TrEMBL record:
Keyword field: Cytoplasm, Lipid biosynthesis, Lipid metabolism, Metal-binding, NAD, NADP, Oxidoreductase, Phospholipid biosynthesis, Phospholipid metabolism
Taxonomic source organism: Streptomyces celluloflavus
InterPro entries on file: G1PDH, Glycerol_DH
Protein name: Iron-containing alcohol dehydrogenase family protein
Domain of life of the native organism: Bacteria
NADP found in the keyword field: yes
Any Pfam family: Fe-ADH_2
């Protein structure tokens, strides 16, 4: 009888709780992530200072590194600076930029990364991808999954609410991304990974159908877990497919066409997902998504993030160019600009009530 299962690259520890930061030092020592306590901690220069003050006494063997920004250069500099320290692990303590920089730096010097997320703005906190700005714009770099993920809900609640909102849009967009993956499987024969699809979809559905509000611990718990599971689903799939389809192509198009005006990742992805669900004819899910996004204060029309309808139509028309080779409802329908305009008018009508 064959006993063939697979091993999933995943963190050794996931700790998502109110007050989780208080247990960070113990967690790192207990789990033998850093038995010697020698750690390189990457933090931001600004809001990181307060966390450093709080955590430094419990982490006497740690050395602290301020991360410049979210560029590839910053990440390379960080790795070079940490290289000579003989650390057990790198800790990325902060928001998405800090964690992405720390992920890349840790991969570069061959150390495991502990991700300590201080906001929930997207699903990259536990993913095998570091998103960094480079000379050509923004690049995605493959890196190992974090060895541990720690999310303190008390810290999350202190972050501006727009970060939580962004995470909601990113999580909900999984439902549209998985639908795109299934479409591509039917239409192009692209292989689909059922486990990765299940993890990503369940994460999206849990956030979509949770009755709680952005300030509730129960809701934040589900959102944080959903974003972590989404990151792991990308490791299972080997790329971002379970969490990135037409929704993310539209988001990238906003970033590229309107670089200084673009809204948050999750705002754009959530709007993109609601529209993509409408395009694929699933009016019920599109309306449900729009209602939930609206309830949490996310946009469902471009006007709500300062774009005209025509700018949105242009972004949708441009979207397939952002991710050549990815087959989604946009590539499938291959709409002309006039058809996108009509479809958007129909969508706007449907979500206006
Ligand atoms: Zn995303």
């Amino acid at each position: 009888m064959p006993v063939l299962t697979r091993l999933i690259p995943s963190p050794v520890v996931v700790d998502i709780n109110a007050g989780a930061l208080d247990g960070l030092a113990g967690l790192l020592a207990d789990q033998r992530i850093s038995a010697s306590g020698k750690l390189a901690v990457a933090i931001s220069g600004g809001s990181g200072a307060r966390l450093r003050e709080r955590l430094a006494p419990a982490l006497p063997g740690a050395e602290w590194y301020e991360v410049g920004g979210g560029t590839l250069d910053d990440a390379i500099k960080l790795g070079d600076a940490m290289k000579k320290g003989h650390y057990d692990a790198v800790v990325g303590l902060g928001g998405g930029k800090i964690i992405d920089c720390a992920k890349y730096a840790a991969a570069r010097i061959g150390l495991p990364l502990v991700a300590v997320a201080t906001n929930l703005s997207h699903d990259g906190l536990c993913s095998p991808v570091a998103t960094l700005d480079n000379d050509a714009g923004r690049g995605s770099y493959g890196v190992p999954n974090p060895i541990a993920v720690v999310i303190d809900l008390d810290i999350i609640r202190e972050a501006p609410v727009r970060f939580v909102r962004s995470g909601i849009g990113d999580a909900i967009s999984n439902i549209s991304a998985v639908a795109d993956w299934e479409l591509s499987h039917r239409e192009t024969g692209e292989s689909i990974d059922g486990l990765a699809a299940a993890m990503a979809r369940q994460a999206g559905e849990a956030v979509l159908r949770h009755p709680g509000e952005v300030g509730d611990d129960a809701f934040l718990q589900v959102l944080a877990e959903g974003l972590v599971l989404t990151g792991i689903s990308m490791s299972v799939a080997g790329d971002s497919r379970p969490a990135s389809g037409a929704c993310h192509e539209i988001n990238h198009a906003f970033d590229i066409l309107y670089p200084r005006r673009s809204a948050s990742h999750g705002e754009q992805c959530g709007l993109g997902a609601a529209f993509a669900m409408h395009l694929r004819g699933d009016r019920e899910t599109s309306a449900l998504m729009a209602g939930v996004l609206r309830r949490h204060g996310l946009p469902v029309t471009p006007g709500e993030i300062g774009f005209t309808d025509e700018e949105f139509v242009a972004a949708v028309a441009y979207a397939p160019k952002t991710r050549p080779g990815r087959y989604t409802i946009l590539e499938h329908l291959d709409l002309s600009t006039d058809q996108i305009r009509d479809a958007y008018a129909d969508y706007a009508q449907a979500v206006s009530s």
